[in-house]
Amino acid sequence: MFGRVWRKSATDVQQSTHQRTCAPGEVICRKGMRGKAVYSVCKGALKLEVSTPDGHTRVVRVLQAGAVFGLEVLSDIHYHHTATCLGRVQLCEIPADAVNEVTLHDADLHMALMQLWQANADEADAVISELCTGPARVRLARLLLHLAREHVTHTCQTMSREDMASLLDLTPETVSRTMAAFKRSGLVAERSGVLACELPGLERISQGMD
Question: Which PANTHER family does UniProt cross-reference here (predicted)?
Answer without folding.
Answer: CRP FAMILY TRANSCRIPTIONAL REGULATORY PROTEIN, REGULATORY PROTEIN YEIL
